[in-house]
Every structure is written in structure tokens, then in C-alpha cells.
Amino acid sequence: MFSLKSSRRTVARTAAVALAGAACAAMMSGSAEAIVNGGNSTQRYPFMVSIPVTGVDDPTFQGVCGGSLIDAKWVLTAAHCVDPRLVTLDGTVRIGSEWKRSGGTVRSIAQTVSHPGYKNGENIVANRDDIALIRLDRAVSEKPIRIAGTPGRPGTPTRLLGFGTVDDTAPDPAKGVFPNRLQELDTRRAAVSECAPGYANSTRLCTVSQVPKAMACHGDSGGPQIRRDRKGRWQLIGVTSGPGAPGVRCSEGPGLYTSAPAYAGWIHKTVSRDG
Question: Structurally, how many domains does the chain consist of?
């Protein structure tokens, strides 16, 4: 989801929206621009995953979260995207498509594993340990993305991907405009001080846009933040988690991303238990 201080109903709906667009649960308007002032995907991202979700407190709301294929049978996402207090999963995910409702490979969810320290941000400053793994029922042929050794220094160019809202002006996140086409936005790693006090730290990456009035939003939750390695290949550094400051619209503030490198040990330990 992307609202961290809302009521449970709003949190649930936002979580569903979160990655119905990913990370800011409802970003951008209905034009070709998205992720709130991002744009249509410019290349294929075989590791991109869409995760259909339904709001627990509002079953009429059907959205989607994002995720990243990190192994032939494992997807990395945000813990709030699989939190049964907030959302109901429909039992499947779609891997490797630039379209939310078609293409790619569809697999059933065999298991979800949230980090044991996960706490939803409703009663704290920001989501804590907001990271989870989804085990697929069968392996896929799409190429997974590698987790970077480090997230890179502040200033490092990054990119966000998601199916979240392209319009962050709607009072109700569930009423955002959600694209069917995958959106991308060029961003950069920011210093801890560029997010509100208490938000960013060694496990939560502050992120700012390289484009004015743009950022991930409702429906983008769980989606990837990526950067290039020295050979130009994409590596995963972050998982869309929420806003980086309170009380501002998605497009007007920094974003907050769970650091994938910070949880590499937990990820490896969890995945290695399978078989």
C-alpha cells in the first residue's frame, strides 16, 4: 500500500491498489504517462511480476501489487502485499509481461513467506521489514533478476517499474487511474536526509525522481527498484514500500523502498529451504 497512517479500511484498499500500480498504491493519470508522470515501458523486463489482490475490507476493490522474479520459483515483493489483514490474494501471479492482464507466464502461488520482523506502517512512522517471498507452484522460463550486492551510493541512477495509478489526485486511492501497460520512471537513490526524519535508514532506501512531479504510487507496492551494474545489466536494489514523507501526494514527495541487498541473507536462507 502507500498510505501509512490511514484507517484499516483505507490501508486495505490502498494495499490492494498498491501494486494495482505498485508502491504508492495509486499513481498518475489516465494518459500514456504513469507511475505518476512516468512512461510506458521502453524494453522487456522478464523479471517483472504482477500480483492480483482484493481488499479485505472492500472486496469490490480488485487491484494488483508488483514483484520481482529472483529465482525460477520465487518472487520478491512487499510484505504488505501479502498481509491477510489487508488483502486477499487471488492465488496467481503473472510473470514477464508488459501488460497487467495478458501475456507472460501465469503461475499459482504455493506459499508466501513474510519477514518475521514485518510491521505495517499504520501505527509507526514507516513500514518495517516490509519484504516477503512468494513461492510458485512450478518454475518459469523467464530470466530472474539478480539482487545487487549494495544499493549504491546516494545519487546512483535507478528505475522504478509498476502498474500503479497514474493519477494521485483522487481522494480515494481505489478510484485512481490504473494502466494496463507497465510503466517505468527514472529515479535516483537519495540521502537519508532527503526523506522525512525516521523514514529512511540502512534497510529503507529514500528515492527521488529525476523527473518533476513524478514517483511511484498506489498500486506500485512490491514492485522493483533497479539499477545497472558495471556491465549495464539490471540489478534489483529495492522493493516499493511507501511514501518517504507524511502528508504529501505521491508525485510531490520522495518514495521509500525496502533494500533488497539488506535482506539478501534472509532471502537466500528462505529460498534455499525449498527442495
Answer: 1
**Cα(1)–Cα(127) distance, integer angstroms:** 10
**Dihedral of CA 79/85/87/89: which sign?**
positive
Calpha distance 118→90 (Å, rounded): 22
Distance of CA 81 to the CA centre of its chain: 9
Q: Splitting the chain (275 residues) into consecutive groups of 10 residues, what average pLDDT does each group show?
A: 38 38 32 56 95 86 91 97 94 96 97 96 82 98 98 96 83 73 95 96 95 87 96 97 90 94 98 82
Which domain range does residue 112 map to? 1-275
CATH of the domain at 98: 2.40.10.10
Structural element, H or E, at residue 11:
helix 8-17
Distance CA 12, CA 61 (A): 10
The upper half-sphere exposure of residue 166, i.e. CA atoms within 13 Å in the direction of its Cβ, equals 20
Which whole-number Å values give the CA distances from 177 to 153, 169, 234, 271, in the listed order? Answer: 33, 10, 28, 35
